[in-house]
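input
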Amino acid sequence: MLSTALADPNPVIIFEHATLYNEQAPLTECENFAVDIHSARVRRPGNDVTLITYGGSLPKTLAAAETLAAEGISCEVIDLRSLRPIDDLSIMASLAKTHRAVVVDEGWRSVGLAAEISARITEQAFFDLDGPVARVCSAERTHPLCAALRDGGHPTTRKDSSSSPEGDAPMSEFCMPSLGADMETGRLVEWLKSPRAEIKRGDVIAVVERRKARSRSRLSRTAFWKRSL
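output
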């Protein structure tokens, strides 16, 4: 894409994702590495659901598609490559085949690229959909310097393969009254129990960040976990 951008007579802005610097992949033997930066590319064909992503989220999305394939779900992965203009034709052509869409984006759900793509799908392919467009995005918070907290707020392979139309919210706030009056709130870093799982008193259900430290929250009684906090 870089050689095509350099050869373009118009200004081109390229976003380089730092996590891709250490990625390795075979190169085809050709003299010209120019690609069509105005068009999206199908990185993995599928029939059940379309996963739309770009940049640093692409390897994780492909890994999630591989995980879902083992469960019998065929995912088509679209690499947008260009964010402006967005290749609407490739997206809608894929939806006409799969009838389901999930947008994976490291940006925020609010006023982000995932919202823009969801709106375009609704406007152009509403009657091709069998369900609402799902979005898997980063937590809407400041970008922490701590690697563990930073990675916990971004979409991961585990989150991608268990996404829902409501999206993933790994940093939800909830109350912890047993910690005392001055330590009642915290931010959820990771759920350790899946929805609808039966849990017993004393089970660890989540990893919580409070005052730049982490703790493991335990259940005080037996119940069925609904993530309704």
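quick obs: The chain has a mean pLDDT of 75.
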